[in-house]
Every structure is written in structure tokens, then in C-alpha cells.
Amino acid sequence: MATLITSDAALQDFVNANNLFTASFYKETVKNNEPNFLMSPYSAETVLTFVQSGCKGETAQEIRNSLHLPADNDKVESAVKESLAVLKGNDKYTLHTANKMYVKEGFQINEGFKNTATDVYQANIENIDFVLNEQAADTMNSWVESQTNNKIKNLISPDILDNNTATVLINALYFKGNWTNRFVNYTTKEEDFYKTNKDVVKVDTMHHYREWFNYCENSVLNAKFLELPFEGEDISMIIVLPNEKEGLASLENQIEKVFAPQNFTREFLNVALPKFKVESTLELKNTLKNLLYQNRLLCHSSNLNLRSSKQIIRLYSTSEPKVSLFLQEEFQHLATEA
């Protein structure tokens, strides 16, 4: 979890919307997936924001409302452009986000939306034959792998592609960073990890002894917050730990407050953090259904800039987004797509 504070009003509104959407996305995702999961609301929101730029009227406004975005689409697109400029790596860490739009051969894209795709979302547009579904899936999967340093594989199944497929939008996000305060290998040792009061497992646990960290104790949430910065100081990982071993459910019931900015202070601490590697494949059909109020979103010709006036587009959750996280002493890998 990370929070970006900016002086730009439009960008800050977009950041605040992302935090609200993250809370909503979490509450819906937890209903339909395994107890342990990894999610990237940014990737999902980026794709849906991309979609609303291709719609008009009530359809576009409904998507913006679901994403907690400002009503003015010009402000939304301005903030998207600025956020993509912010989300760039430097010589201290690698941060890469990319958008891609695959379009059925012969399918006509409105020039205005095409310009928005390339100028605002920095999306490359490529024509593809979805009838050759295996070849098309291989092409798209190769692109995803190239954008996530080969961490995300086999995203697109050929089974979801056919002659009725008009467009496929993909967002890929990749991050690799070194801890500002790296955990030392020789401090890692096997220790108890409490999944619940009665369910205890042994895991390799990394340690920091008597070092300065940004730390917060939130009495309302009955939880502790710890900030672990990466080199460059622009990006941090926030660890949230309930004070009670069975306290996770209580935190989830107040998830909006969990994602809100916290009052951190510098504290001299001992820190113990389990090593772990997680890869999640999320079932998002019901999540998107509940967030967008419909099982499928119909963009009729009067409300859609994507295609000819006689056609209708139906937006489905047809693939299962994947997220991969690798946490160890020296660095963290994160790769995600939607």
C-alpha cells in the first residue's frame, strides 16, 4: 500500500479516487477469492478509466462514479497523463507501466478515441486477427511478458478470443526496488507465524534491530503501520499489522480508514518481517459486476466512440488478472496486469 501526495489539484483528486476505488475493490475482491490474495487496483482502474474515455453520456458517467473519478472527463484525462509521468523509474528503482490496445482487423476506431488512447494513455494500438485465437493469444502474452520482465506468463487464454472480439485492452505494471535499509541475510531465521491464534507455521523471517522507521499506532483501527522505503525515497511499502491475532476481519470492515493517510512519526524499532513469494490469479467477474452495478456493461452506439453506429459493445471480465510479488532481504519485485 502506498500514498502519493501532490500539489496538483487534478492529480490529487485522481489519487484520492484511486484510494477510494482501492477500498471498494478490496471489499469486493475478498468475497470471491482465496483468503490470501494479491491485487493491483491501479491496473484495474487504469483499464476501466481507459474504457470510459471511449464512452459518452450516462455510460461514461456511471463508470466514473464507480471509480470515484471526477465528473469532468477533461480533468480525469489530464490527471491520467500526469500520473503516467509520475510513474517513471529512475536510477534507484525500476517502475514501468504500459497500456496496449489490440483491435480486430477491419474494426474502425473513432479518430478522437484513437488520439486519446495514444496521447493520454500512451497506449500502442495494434491490429490483430482474433479468429486465429492461439496466434493472437501468443502475441498478447509475449507483450505482457516483455512489459513485466517475464514475471507474468500466459495471461490471455485463446478460449476467450473469437470473431466477436473487437478490442482487448491491457495494462501492465512492473516494479523492482531495493530497500533503503536492507535486511541482512544472517539475521534471517525460522520463526513462528500466526495465521490465527491456533494456526501457526514456521517461516523464514527477516530482521532489523534498533533502526529508525516511520511508524504509526492507530488506536481507532487497533493496528500498527510501518513504512519500509525503497531507495530513491519516492516509493514505500506500508505494512499494516492488527494488534490482535484475530484482528484482520476488523481491519477489513474499516478498509477505507486503512487506506487513508496515517500520522507517521520516526521511531527506533526492531522489525521482523516474513519472507514470501505470492502469485495471485483473481476472479473479477463478480467484483466488476458489483462495482459497475451490472453483470455486463452495454455501451450503445449513442454512448460509444469506439465503433460504427450500428454496433454494440459488451464489456466482460473475460480474463483473470495476475499479480506476482517476491519479497526478500535485498529487494522487492512486483509485476501485475489487468
From TrEMBL:
Record key words, sorted: Protease inhibitor, Serine protease inhibitor
Pfam families associated with the record: Serpin
Domain Serpin positions: 23-330
MF terms (GO), sorted A to Z: serine-type endopeptidase inhibitor activity
Coiled-coil region(s): none
One cellular-component annotation, GO: extracellular space
PANTHER family named among the record's database cross-references: GH10112P-RELATED (PTHR11461:SF211), SERINE PROTEASE INHIBITOR, SERPIN (PTHR11461)
Annotated family: Belongs to the serpin family.
Name of the molecule in the record: Serpin domain containing protein
Species whose genome carries this gene: Asbolus verrucosus (Desert ironclad beetle)
Lineage of the species this protein comes from: Eukaryota, Metazoa, Ecdysozoa, Arthropoda, Hexapoda
